[in-house]
């Protein structure tokens, strides 16, 4: 007789308790899946993944403390064997590509039905990737364009952070960046701060040097 297969171990991460608990109960009721833990923010998710080493993490994007994109990046960097399925309300390209760059292997909209979610988990656990049809087409078009030097630099940055870094490297002030990207000065300050942290540099001048070395801001 064949040995019964080990169940797939899944962690659920979402800051909305009703959605999180509902999804955990739903997945826990499926034969072949076991929920090993839940987390309410990205920092908890990283700690949970480190401790439990699940096969798959179902990850919300918009969360306090640490967002789902950054949590995904940390989890996949520490444990490449863990597959992350990102679950979000948003279908915008920036979020999709940020998730892909962070190491997510699945991307589902929160309206996805039970079968879609389960199929995504089992596919990602098996080493595959899952993106909705519309998303898959856009990702295909994006990557078909081929890598273009600066585009592949700094994969840890979100699309918005890359845009801000590009303008910083071009010598623009925060006020000029805010005007160019139609953002508030506070949002620009936060993005610049995130960029400095992610590039592990202490000030704007160092960020400009790193960016220009990579071909940005020319």
From TrEMBL:
PANTHER family reported for this sequence: TRANSCRIPTIONAL REGULATORY PROTEIN NARL-RELATED, TWO-COMPONENT RESPONSE REGULATOR
The protein's name: Two component transcriptional regulator, LuxR family
SUPFAM superfamilies according to UniProt: C-terminal effector domain of the bipartite response regulators, CheY-like
Domain Response regulatory: 9-125
Modified residues (4-aspartylphosphate): 60
Xref: SMART domains: HTH_LUXR, REC
Biological process, per Gene Ontology: phosphorelay signal transduction system; regulation of DNA-templated transcription
Domain HTH luxR-type: 150-215
Keyword Transcription listed: yes
Pfam families given in the database record: GerE (PF00196), Response_reg (PF00072)
Highest taxon in the source lineage: Bacteria
Family matches, as Gene3D superfamilies: 3.40.50.2300
The keyword Cell membrane belongs to this UniProt entry's keyword annotation: no
Record keywords: DNA-binding, Phosphoprotein, Transcription, Transcription regulation
GO MF term list: DNA binding
């Amino acid at each position: 007789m064949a040995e019964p297969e080990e169940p797939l171990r899944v962690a659920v991460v979402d800051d909305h308790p009703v959605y999180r608990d509902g999804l955990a109960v739903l997945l826990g009721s499926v034969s072949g899946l076991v929920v090993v833990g839940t987390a309410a923010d990205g920092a908890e998710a990283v700690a949970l993944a480190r401790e439990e080493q699940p096969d798959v993490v179902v990850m919300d994007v918009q969360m306090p403390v640490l967002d789902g994109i950054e949590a995904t990046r940390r989890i996949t960097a520490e444990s490449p064997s863990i597959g992350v399925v990102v679950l979000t309300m948003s279908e915008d390209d920036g979020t999709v590509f940020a998730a892909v760059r962070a190491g997510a292997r699945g991307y589902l909209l929160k309206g996805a039905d039970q079968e879609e979610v389960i199929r995504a988990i089992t596919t990602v656990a098996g080493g595959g990737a899952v993106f909705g049809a519309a998303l898959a087409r856009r990702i295909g078009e994006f990557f078909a364009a081929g890598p273009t030097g600066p585009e592949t630099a700094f994969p840890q940055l979100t699309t918005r952070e890359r845009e801000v870094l590009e303008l910083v490297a071009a010598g623009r002030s925060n006020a000029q960046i805010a005007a160019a990207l139609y953002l508030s000065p506070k949002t620009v300050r936060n993005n610049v701060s995130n960029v400095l942290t992610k590039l592990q540099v202490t000030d704007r001048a160092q960020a400009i040097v790193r960016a220009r070395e990579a071909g940005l801001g020319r």
